[in-house]
Amino acid sequence: MITWVGASVVVGYLAGESYETVSRYLGQATGAVLVLLVAVVAIVLIGRWLGRNPDPALVLARRAAALPPMRWLIQRYGLLLFLLSMRVGPRWAFVANLVFGLGLLLLFAFAMAYMVNAVVGHSGLSVVDSVIADWISARRTEGFAHAADVVVGVFGPKSLVVVVALAALVLAWRRRAWRGDLVTLVATAGAFLPLVLLAVAEKALAERFFLTQHAVVTASICTLAWLFARRIRWMVAVAMWTVAVVGVVMVTAARLYVGWNTASQLVTSVLLGVLWTAVFMVAWATRVRVDNPSADVPDMSGSAPGRPADKLLWCAP
C-alpha cells in the first residue's frame, strides 16, 4: 500500500497540469485492485466450500428438500418419488448429479467472467490500449512477428485442452482408485472439463467483454502445472510452476506483439484463467485435507504410495 501511494504521488507530480486526469485513473485502478482482492477472497471461500461439499448438486438438493414446499411435496408424493429414483438407478442418478454440477460450474464461469471484465474495465487500462499497440507496431519486425505467430499457433486453446485431457486421463489411469463426485472428477480424470466450460463462457461473452481465447490458454497451462506439480517433490514443483508462468507470459507477449489482442483483453483473460484454476486447486486441497485430517502438511515427495491425494478419482458408485 505504501508503494502504491508513493508511486501515485510521483506520477501525479510528473503529470503536472494533468494531475486531475492521472488521479482519476489512479483512483479507478485502486478501486479495481480492491475489488479484485475481495473477489480472490470469495473464490477461496467458494473453493473451500466445494472441497467440503464435493457433490454440490446433492448438497443443494438436500437443502431444497428441507424447505416447507418441498417437504409437503415429499410427504404427498414420497412413494412416487422413491419409485422414480429406483427406476432411474444409481448410475443415472450419478450422471444427473454430474451434469447438474457442471451446469452450476458453467454459471459460475459466467459470473467470474463478468466480474473480471468489470474489474479490468473499471481500472481504466483500456485507455492505454492504443498507445501500447502503436508502440509495439512501430518496433515490429518480420522475424519476430513470424516467431510470435508460431508461438500463438502452437499454444492454441484447442490443442492445450487436448493435452490437458490426455495428461489427466493418463495420470488417473495410473491410480485406479475411484470415487464419484464432482470435485474429484474435475481434479483428476476430468480436469479438462472446467476448461471446456470456460471456453463456452468465453465464446458466449467475447463480443461484449474483453475476453479472448487466451483465458482458456492460461487456464490450460496452469492446470497442467497443477496436475503434475502436486505429485512430485516440492523443488521440482516450484520449477514446473515457474515454467508455467514463463509459458503464460510468453504466449501473452506473442499475442500482444502480433496484435491479436489488446493489453486490456490479455489482462482480463489471464486473470480469468488464473482465478478459474485457483477455484479447483483450493477445492481439491480442501478435499484432501478433509479426507486426511491427520496430515497437516501434505507429502510432496512423491515417495509415499497410497496417499489419499493420489487415490481420489471419480467413478460411478
Automatic annotation (TrEMBL):
Transmembrane segments: 29-50, 95-116, 150-173, 182-201, 213-229, 236-260, 266-285
UniProt keyword terms in alphabetical order: Membrane, Transmembrane, Transmembrane helix
Name the record gives this protein: Phosphatidic acid phosphatase type 2/haloperoxidase domain-containing protein
Native source species: Phytohabitans flavus
Organism ancestry: Bacteria, Bacillati, Actinomycetota, Actinomycetes, Micromonosporales
